[in-house]
Records
---
Amino acid sequence: MNIETKSTTATEKRMPLIGITMGDPAGIGAEIAVKAMLCPEVEGICRPVIIGDANAVADAIRFTGLKGREKSISKISEAAFEPGTVNVLDLKNVDMGGLIYGKVQPSAGRAAFEYIKRGIELALEGSIDAVVTGPIHKEALNQAGYDYSGHTEIFADLTDTSDYAMMLVDQGMRVVHVTTHVSLREACDLVKRNRVLTVIRLAHDAMQALGIETPRIGVAGLNPHSGEHGLFGDEEIRQIIPAIKDAQALGIIAEGPVPPDTLFAKTRSGQYDVAIAMYHDQGHIPLKTVGFTCDPETGKWSSVSGVNVTLGLPIIRTSVDHGVAFGKAGKGIANPESMVQAIQMAVELAKKRIH
């Protein structure tokens, strides 16, 4: 009996320790974190800890009806990884009496930022192996005084990272973005040779980190038909093609610019291991078409799969690929699918880094 106990403990210690930031307390973050932590797909692969507020987590357990209990801890070493236990690194920053589910609130934005900041600190000091982030509300974040357009920019700033990119992953399809949370007008101006090359290199390194030794990278054009030799725009000629040639000179297998209306179908079919999108919606639309399914009769999402990974950071960060879902907050009906996948991706990346 003692031998089995020691063996189990040793196995647990080898499993990555994952910090899950709770996200905006007024949204579905606590709910999907709890649901994910209590499912077998997560319990058997890692040691998860929610970075958030224990009272909010307790409320999520209550309204979901799940058989689990929150354990408030003040430091990671106090976590007890036992079946049914939801460890919460408790920042004690949510007033449950004043919190309104489904509403933009500066206090919720402030709390969400504090979870992220603490998660980054823990990862940088090596106390956790990866950070998985729950959804935040950008308006609440800005109302709280934090001038960021999203998680990616917060992580880059707080880790002092200059070269970074967003990668979306779902069902074997991977897309890395040259630009993200800017206007479409500004995105066009930001598609520059050096930036495109940087993103190609980040994508190449990410694929190798995932075990693809010689990744094939498809690079989208910015304009319809990739500009049609300058007929519909010359960004491909002036910026994208030179960047692709620079990448090829480095030994990277990069092709393009591939017309955006065919690139993602080719990537999904396996012709490319990863696609490079020039702007937010160019990459998000095909990924969410693959991963999101809506019931035509009820209008409710039956699937919200997909993972967001920030490339270029000194730490591992993955995230759900959806928002706070205020319409579902506090009702116990949120789908944890994307959170489970984000945790699984973080575990995969952490194991490769640990080993």
---
Amino acid sequence: RMAERQVHRFGGRHVKTTGDGILATFDGPAQAIQCGLAICNGAHQLGVEVRVGVHTGEVERRGDDVAGIGVHIAARVQARAQPGEVWVSRTVTDLVTGSGITFNDRGEHPLKDVPGAWQLFTVVDPAAG
């Protein structure tokens, strides 16, 4: 419920619950990043550690659901994240240039069922510093 409240707070749309996770969409990647940080911080306060992955790309709308390579890549980015971290793809870092959000480069990673290696980054949480 906390995560769903944060998604709403940052203007996102909660698409569905996926086992122990959630899938949400946003109008822009900066909103998704800020929401991810808020979810990580809120979960930590509850004694739980979560991992967040953010990617931006094309999605297929299927009624109230979404699918497609963009959703698949976001899930694979999330799988690389460590507990309490928000990881993003290079695509996201390029799109939020000038937003004030900072990142640490985590290098190139293969993503299961996605061609090539993907450069991934962790979001630097300004509240942690």
---
Amino acid sequence: MAIAIYVTSIDAFSGKTSICIGLGLRFKKDGFSIGYMKPLSFSAIQMEGKPVDQDSIFVGKLLGLPTPSEDLCPIALTPQMVESILAGKEEKDHEPILMEAYRRASEGKDIMILEGGATLREGYLLNLSTPYVSDILETRELVVVRCPHANERVIVDDILAARARLGDSMLGIVLNSVPPSKLPFMEETIKPFLERRGIKVYAIIPEDRVLKSITVGEVLDTLGGEIICAGEAIGELVEEMMVGAMNVDSALNFFRRKRNKLVITGGDRADIQLAALETSTKCIILTGGLHPSPIIVSKAEELGIPMILTSYDTLTAVELIEKAFREARFHQEKKITRIEEIMEERFDIERLYRELGLR
């Protein structure tokens, strides 16, 4: 029977997928036969006439699993399907579907990795809460806790609440996306406190620019804009965002502060656009629907830096792109390589193996 790890989290976009990928690749490297499943998803889309969860398909392919999509995520619900359930138009017992899919996916495997929903609260709508699913599938939970500039007391309270909810089956936690300024406090104060309370801390992972980056293509999709040059570079990763609203005298020094960035400015600010092109810039967003000078477009094309025209004003564009950064996915090769490096550097895999009884 496979040993099962349920990677779950307290909040959405905490980094569960990256931890699942990192663990899966490490387990394979160490010679274990693995399986993967996302028991339920409330963000499925229709593909070829059936609801599927795209993230689970991506992880399955990345880990080289032949598992069909209906077993990678056996309960995949679109927003429309959720509405039908709420309206009482659809009543179905999903538990047998989940159990049978898990039996197939775990057959002959040493380790099963399960990816939880957005939060520990997700699933009650279907009577399939995280604690219940963990219980019926006999898993151990690894809780991923995102720590971006948050109040430390709130983080600790959330972790203790998760332990109270999950009980002794909880393996421990991963503190993820920790700001560099807070790393010493997390390592020297928070980790010892949690360990004294019987909560194992398997990793403290700092914020990472590569992992939180998004592609130029994702920026384009987010803004619904028009790409006007260097379209072949839409796969490039953007790590930072800067707004070009200053005077031209200070623009160059300002833009030199950050690498691999996108710059948001008005289409009529040729001086700002030129300054951005002279620094480490991956993309320029032109707000207000104003087209740039042909000379600027020609220079951007020559440098291979895409320019995207959007009808949004600067403030709205910033808000949309900030949201895209918060919800960054892990579908790029550079990110996968970085995940492997971070897990090797930061995750106490030997401790996990001891806790699971693996050799």
